[in-house]
Amino acid sequence: MIYLDNAATSFPKPEPVYRELQDYLRRDGANPGRAGHQWAMRVEKTMDDTRNLLARFFGMDDHRRVIFGLNGTDSLNMAIKGVLRPGDHVVTSLLEHNSVSRPLKQLEADGSIRLTQLPFSREGFVDPEDFRRALTSRTRLVVLLHASNVLGTLQPVAEVGRICRRQEALFLVDAAQTAGVVPIDMQAMQIDLLAFPGHKALFGPPGIGVLLVGHRVEPLPWREGGTGFDSEDPLQPRRFPHLLEGGTPNTLGVAALRAGLRFVTGEGLERIRGHEQRLLARLTESLKDNPKVCLYGSTDPHRRVGSLALNREGYTSSEVGAILDNSFEIAVRPGLHCAPYLHRHLGTAPEGVVRISPGYFNTEDDIDRCISALEQL
Ligand SMILES: Cc1ncc(COP(=O)(O)O)c(C=O)c1O
């Protein structure tokens, strides 16, 4: 089977991640810090060490503001529900994943916030000028994904960050498709909240997500409970990371994420991105002149990450997905990819597109077999 669905989750994982999953449960399965015994302290150290590595990797100066959650969705909900208050205005885009648009739409439906969803160009990019015009003195939060999970297009995050800072709005970036592939510096890009899953390009297992909370943000917790500290306090402790981390954390996921992050830093982002760009260029070059294939979004490799959206004349996207799966043993993702507003704007709703997303462990041969399958279809 050829796995070309890395935008959903990365597979396979690097060997050190598998080893850590196995070893951690045998070696370090205690609950962190809380009991104060040596074993617990060792686990606490793993958590702290991972927070430090992540803070350094993403240009954040305080590792205590690195929060572990369940997945990308959990981190985004923590940020959105933690900062928004009744009467706030929020600006976002039509490119967003349901993990952003659903919580925002619910808050809008409840009458709690006012929401502006900005369009994107045919090529798949938002225009920073639209953000500048949309922000008002009531805008508390701007939410934008770093790269589209359908089109792969990279958004002008640093420009939008500058606009938010000038208008004193908070800026939340959904880096689900870029963390571990594209360099991100929260301070340089003026990002206040950075959310991403650990199970995609950072090569952690499912069940781990991360939220980095900048110094301008004092969120409220939306999950309250035991932290192992300040147990007499009737309310959730105010200090980070405990403010946002009630309950037993996914220590196994954190330990494996650390192994994934070490792998990424060892290989280097340039090399990882370069490999994905080469695979994508090979795919794009061979399909772009095929009159039966329609490609969506910019094909400029410098303005995109590793996923390609297409449709094949005469077939629905789900038919293409099923044929590639059943007749060619190739796993791709057809449909709407949890981005219904994007597809409506692009004109590809309700059937959607076929998304082909190679990862670091795919080879040129995998891509050639996918090209050949699409030609034989
Ligand atoms: C752009 C984007 N945001 C958020 C998410 C949600 O991440 P998770 O599935 O880890 O909750 C995804 C997942 O595919 C995504 O692609």
Low-confidence runs of at least 5 consecutive residues: none
The strand line-up of the biggest sheet is 2-8-7-6-5-3-4
Which range best describes the helical content: under 10%, 10-25%, 25-40%, 40-55%, 55-70% or over 70%? 25-40%
CATH fold field value of the largest domain: Aspartate Aminotransferase, domain 2
Derived from helix and strand composition plus strand pairing, the structural class reads: alpha/beta
Task: Write up what this structure looks like.
It is a single chain. The strands form 3 sheets. The chain has a 7-stranded mixed beta sheet with strand order 2-8-7-6-5-3-4, sandwiched between helices. 38% of the residues lie in helices and 15% in strands. It has 11 helices and 13 strands. The chain starts with a strand and ends with a helix. It has 2 domains: 2-10 and 268-376, Aspartate Aminotransferase, domain 1, CATH 3.90.1150.10; 15-266, Aspartate Aminotransferase, domain 2 (3-Layer(aba) Sandwich), CATH 3.40.640. Helix 2 (38-57) crosses helix 7. The protein is α/β, with parallel strands linked by helices and 377 residues long. The chain has helices at 15-27, 38-57, 72-83, 98-109, 128-134, 157-167, 251-267, 269-287, 317-328, 340-346, 364-376; strands at 2-3, 66-69, 89-93, 114-118, 139-145, 170-174, 193-197, 209-213, 293-296, 308-312, 330-331, 333-335, 353-356. Bound molecules: pyridoxal-5'-phosphate. Residues 8, 71-73, 97, 99, 145, 149, 174, 176-177, 197, 209 line the site of pyridoxal-5'-phosphate.
